[in-house]
Automatic annotation (TrEMBL):
Keyword tags: Pyridoxal phosphate
Pfam families: Ala_racemase_N
Alphabetized PANTHER family for the sequence: PROLINE SYNTHETASE CO-TRANSCRIBED BACTERIAL HOMOLOG PROTEIN, PYRIDOXAL PHOSPHATE HOMEOSTASIS PROTEIN
Record protein name field: Pyridoxal phosphate homeostasis protein
Sequence similarity: Belongs to the pyridoxal phosphate-binding protein YggS/PROSC family.
Keyword ATP-binding: no
Function: Pyridoxal 5'-phosphate (PLP)-binding protein, which is involved in PLP homeostasis.
Sites of N6-(pyridoxal phosphate)lysine modification: K36
Domain Alanine racemase N-terminal positions: 14-224
UniProt-listed CDD domains: PLPDE_III_Yggs_like
Gene3D superfamilies found in the cross-reference section: Alanine racemase (3.20.20.10)
Length: 225
């Protein structure tokens, strides 16, 4: 179990270092542990080490883990593709959804969010590299989607999420994040305070360009089989 402690310490150290280089305030970046395909026991280990935010891609797998870990005060983030017929359990069982890419999905999440729960935190997924295989709204259509989603009840629109095309070069990793961050800032909507940018391979570049949440899987849990 020492591995979990070492990995968590290393990732947190990398985040702190990147935040320092970027000249940003301490504690401005939230670590999301991406636990897809990993057992509930692994989540429990990281929880005992102080990690509270966990992100899942697959709904059925996530719901099963949530049942197993019901005694834990976990903040659950959904980051996978959303089918319209799966919105109800997402609306009922998550605190954050990062992968909303069309108004229909947002409307269903709004309608199906239970009244006794706080508003569901929403990030809009932007296809910043314009890849045909990737989900996400085009950057040009983002302002219109923001306007529409921000009017929906039971939702709290928080910001954007992006998964750019992988790049080995640090400067190329930074470009798409910079482009999206600036585009959102130019809309002059202070409520959009969340930028779900960066994974294990481009964490430093993402933090340099304004990330407030990094989604880390492999560096915390090890390779997926």
């Amino acid at each position: 179990m020492d591995n979990f402690a070492e990995r968590l310490q290393l990732v947190r150290s990398q985040i702190r270092h990147a935040v320092g280089i970027a000249g940003r305030p301490k504690g401005c970046v939230q670590l999301l542990a991406v636990s897809k395909t990993k057992p509930a026991g692994d989540i429990a280990e990281l929880y005992r080490l102080g990690q509270r935010h966990f992100a899942e891609n697959y709904l059925q797998e996530a719901l099963q883990k949530q049942r197993q870990l019901a005694a834990f005060n976990i903040t659950w983030h959904f980051i996978g593709p959303i089918q319209s017929n799966k919105t109800k359990p997402i609306a009922c069982h998550f605190d954050w959804v990062h992968s909303v890419d069309r108004l229909k999905v947002a409307q269903r999440l709004s309608e199906q969010r239970p009244a006794q729960l706080p508003p569901l935190n929403i990030c809009l997924q932007v296809n910043i590299s314009e890849e045909a295989s990737k989900s996400g709204v085009d950057l040009a259509e983002l302002p219109q989607l923001i306007e529409a989603v921000s009017r929906l009840p039971r939702l709290r629109l928080r910001g954007v999420m992006a998964i750019p095309e992988p790049e080995a070069s640090y400067s190329k990793q930074r470009q798409p994040y910079r482009c999206l961050y600036q585009a959102v800032r130019e809309l002059n909507r202070p409520e959009l305070d969340s930028f779900s940018f960066g994974m294990s391979g481009d964490l430093k570049a993402a933090i340099m360009e304004g990330s407030t949440m990094v989604r880390i899987g492999t560096a915390l849990f090890g390779e997926r089989h």
